[in-house]
Amino acid sequence: MAERLPPKERTKIPRQAMPERDALERAHNFCEVNSGFDLALAEKEAQRCLACADPKCVHGCPVGVKVREVVDLVIEGEYLKAAAKLREDNVLPAVTGRVCPQETQCEGACILGKRFAPLAIGHIERFVADYERQTGEAGLPTPAPPTGKKVAIVGSGPAGLSCAGDLILKGHHVTVFEALHEIGGVLLYGIPEFRLPKDIVQTEVANLGRMGVEFQTNVVIGKTITVDELLNEMGYDAVFVATGAGLPKFMNIPGEHLGGVYSANEFLTRVNLMKAYDADHYDSPVYSCANRNVAIIGGGNTAMDGVRSALRLGAKNAYIIYRRSEAEMPARVEEVHHAKDEGVQFMTLHNPVEFIGNDEGFLTGMRLQKMELGAPDDSGRRRPVPMPGSEFLLPIDVAVIAIGTGANPLVQSTTPDMQTNKWGYIVADEATLRTTKRGVFAGGDIVSGSATVILAMGAGRTAARSIHEFLNTGVW
Ligand SMILES: Cc1cc2nc3c(=O)[nH]c(=O)nc-3n(C[C@H](O)[C@H](O)[C@H](O)COP(=O)(O)OP(=O)(O)OC[C@H]3O[C@@H](n4cnc5c(N)ncnc54)[C@H](O)[C@@H]3O)c2cc1C
After folding, report:
1. 155: containing domain
2. Atom of ligand 1 at shortest distance to CA of 411?
3. Which of 205, 254, 294, 408 has its CA 20 to 30 A from that of 165?
4. What pLDDT does residue 1 have?
């Protein structure tokens, strides 16, 4: 069992790099890019932790993972105990270790980062969760005795799954209703295999199943069953709406109807969930990217996932078209680096104004306008301003629009008394996630708008606490 190094020794160790597959090799298949820390790397990195008396990283984590205690256990070689400690606050550690924007959360708050590189908390988290999964020794907590209360969860993304995980432990009967044919939300249909292997999500879902959570797929709440029917006819005592923000936004420019123009949602769903990249085994069609010019419009994680998928589908040129500069891009820094290493071409300060097609109605090009940055707008980022007379034509065969998503209106429009805001998101009390309808709670992207996996999980946990209290007291 190792011990912590003296404080002065800790800062002499450089941050350990995440091992990753060669950029040019990985750009042609969907295997995972990062290969993860081994025991030696994990312990060496853990030794860099300053063991702060008041660890800022914990405050920086939206679900308050006890980072320092996890790191202590890694140094002691107690990896399964470290995994159990992680799970006290985070039901999907192998997922968040891979996809959380740590640079703005736990690692952004790390004191070590003031003078040196911050502790690689995400990489350590991933190591611990993978160790637990690979040894097959996940010690699942035992649920409390049945309470006889029933909770329906609408949507199986990170918000729904984390709420289910907490409520099942309290002894309630939990059913997750999912519109799609598989469980996992964006973790499954949005984030590609090369960043988040699907068997990881499926293992976590199976663990919830082993703990007693019931899953019903292909059930569209608002169509197959309404929220009122869940409460009044099917005997559910509470409902948590966690339907995400999956409604694609379009640009409303000429030519958007042409064949070869996709929303990111459709493109990624075909590729990830329907496995269009594996044409030998799956029938899902996706307009061919092979040897073609493919442009993804946007600068967030979705755009990076789209463009890196297009490369892996064989694109000759894969472009990011973004109307601001790289400094304003909302995508995780690691995703931008990976995309560049793999050969993605970044056309920042460019904005499409028209899609051009041929006589058969298929996309052949995009008219782009050059932009420059003006004064900051409401988001605090510098506003992109068109440069007059700068338009030009870029030959393009496939375009994927990744400029954001909105709230899917189905549950809201079929649930009377549940208030929405002017953008169509559900109104929920910040502290309790109660909606304006008795017995109905809501959280994750359907309340906050598109955010992050860990914030959605945090919302799921808050909802679980409030639902448990409501079921115990009946007080609304
Ligand atoms: C391509 C992409 C990449 C991303 N990358 C990252 C990343 O790297 N890091 C990060 O932190 N965040 C990332 N995000 C954001 C993150 O995935 C979301 O913030 C998070 O998934 C939201 O969780 P949620 O549970 O609220 O909703 P979702 O994950 O959207 O899940 C909602 C679920 O509800 C289901 N549903 C919807 N309507 C109904 C209905 N009427 N009846 C039944 N079921 C319904 C949907 O099918 C879906 O399965 C990414 C998002 C996308 C789209």
Report:
1. 150-246+407-473
2. 41
3. 408
4. 64
